[in-house]
Amino acid sequence: MSDILARATRGLIALSLAASVLVGVHIVSSTPASAAAAYRILVTGDSITQGSNSDYTWRYRLVKKLNQTAPGEFEMVGTRSTLFNNVTNEQGSTNYADSNFTGKQHSALWGTTYEIQVDNIASQVSSTNANVLVTMLGSNDLAYRTSPAATIENVRLFIQRARAANPGIDIVIGEVVTKWDPWSGSINLTAETQDYASRLATLASSLNTSSERVVIANTRNGWDPTKHTWDGTHPNATGETLIAQRISEGLAKIGIGAASPNIFQTTSWNVEAPQPSVATATEKATLSWSRNSTGATGMFIQTRIENINQAWQELPYAVGNPDSWTLDPLAAGGTYQFRLRPTKGFMEGDAGSSVQRTIDGITPGAPTGLVTTPVATDSTGGVQIRMSWNAGSNAQGYILAQRRYPGTAGFTELPYPITGTSWTFGLLDAGRYYAFRTQSSRGFLTSGWATGATKRSKGIPSNASYAVVGDSYAAGNGMYRDPYAYDDLECVRASDSWSSHVASYYSPYRRIVACSGAAIADVDNIQAGLAEDHFSSASPNAAKMMTVSIGGNDVGFAAWLGRCVTSNCNTPENEADFTSTVNLTEQRLAVLYSRLADRFPYTDIIAMGYPSPVGDTPGGLCGVAIDQGEANFIWRGVIHLNGAIDRAATQSGAWTGLGLRIENEFRTHGACDDDPWIHAVSTPKENSFHQNQAGHLRYGMIINDYLIDRTS
Known about the structure:
- By secondary structure, the protein is an alpha+beta fold.
- The chain has 18 helices and 30 strands.
- The strands form eight sheets. Strands 20, 21, 23, 24, 25 and 26 form a six-stranded antiparallel beta sheet that branches. A five-stranded parallel beta sheet has the order 2-1-5-6-9, sandwiched between helices.
- It starts with a helix and ends with a helix.
- Mean pLDDT is about 90; it is low at about 1-35.
């Protein structure tokens, strides 16, 4: 409710009861009687009945209904036909919401009471020759003047004097409705209106006769001042339909029209704002208007930039007295349209016709030297990236834009220019790739864009799409002793291998495309396509991660292990041969990583290393004789291969550094150490020299730790 109040009442001009002076009725000539009209209906009341500038009034709603249910049978009569001017706080307004309203005659008066009108009703009835009297008085009596009991006595006198002026007159009396204080949220006059309604029913019953009928219109039925008033007291368009319906039900009881159809419904205040006057100056414009024609308590100001076909933008609050507003600064060089939309308390009308103007200004120079830097999370846990740049000439501010990859079709701009030369974008998504750019602005004129390098935000993304690429170390060899327990017998894939531990921390959407025996060419020609299919099946906005464990088969690592088991592998010739093979593989790995980076942009591509199957003090492989020199040869080979993987990854932009971690973690957990994480020569043979279940778990934890350290 507080938001409604802030929007609807800003600029609201207080309608002081004191300003609406309680005056006696000034008799003017009544509408001539129509020969065909059997019923001459005189409506009396206070501000609820008279209405103010650009109200439809409930009288209007009643006449529309009677034109349907009693066409040609009635005529509205009265001592005036005007509204109260709530803008100038004076009588005499002719600005009805519907200028074609033909049943305007009435004798209602803003601020009046039964206490006053008992002295005027006789002259009103006699001067208009009314034979039906409809009255909706009592609100001011109960609020400010008299008790329900005292008010009823004035009603009794009011009826007596009306009958004296025209014996036989029929009378329909509306109940007094409650009020609402929007500031405190309280409903007022609840007890008073209930008491008054009970007494009014008793009075009507005692005074009602077959020749002079007195009928109660149950206007309290369905009334809710929080929904049916524009200021807590006076009916809005919906409230007008409710009162008119209840009055029509009362009239139907004396044979005028019918209760049906029910016209009470949610109804808009379709009043159009006036066209504003617009005076422009350098990078600003001043709008002015008059609220007199609309009775508005304020105007919502709407603008749009024509030369970019911008949708209409509206000031978030209504502007009241004085009836002017300066928009400063405006976009220099933009062609603007300006229009108004009226609000009357809590009612909002329709936008009026627009005025178009073009604003002048100076074109600023572009900023230079844009730098973007990922920084730590903020106090709310949001991820941040900081931008800084050198000022552009004649710039009043800077427009900043960022784009996340993947996830957005284009750059998203801050909704306003900033005035400094640095900015920290916060509440970014963790572990996502962002591009940033900035341009100088001066009003609407802007410079060219200065664009920085794409940067990855710190942290690990949620709901990422994860592809596991590579050979048997990635597929999951070693998880089971039963060769038929694997998910894919051909590639020996195990869904609960080490990558499942990474996936549970990093991503719920994982696919293992790695295959036992795979080499670099298999990743390039087969697995990359499978990974692409996997990423395509995920949300197009999802973060993407790929671990690549490849190169071991390309250097023939399994064959070298077999050679060490069956013969002496620690020779200078073998060392040179293995080193040459690794060096050639390094070049091929660099090409592969580059191709993957091109094919999968904005993807975390992590180059995996290999664990050594033997510790640094093996003493043999569970009965298979390998001397210390051969163990050192194997150890050096793993280090050399992991180094080649890191160098190739660094050259192509893939993530590096895992090999050393894996080497160090597995150093004392070789195949035949006290706590082995690696199978020795094993059955099935595919498990040999691969991680066992403990090794798979630890391997996944190493990668998780690496991801945390790498991205924090």
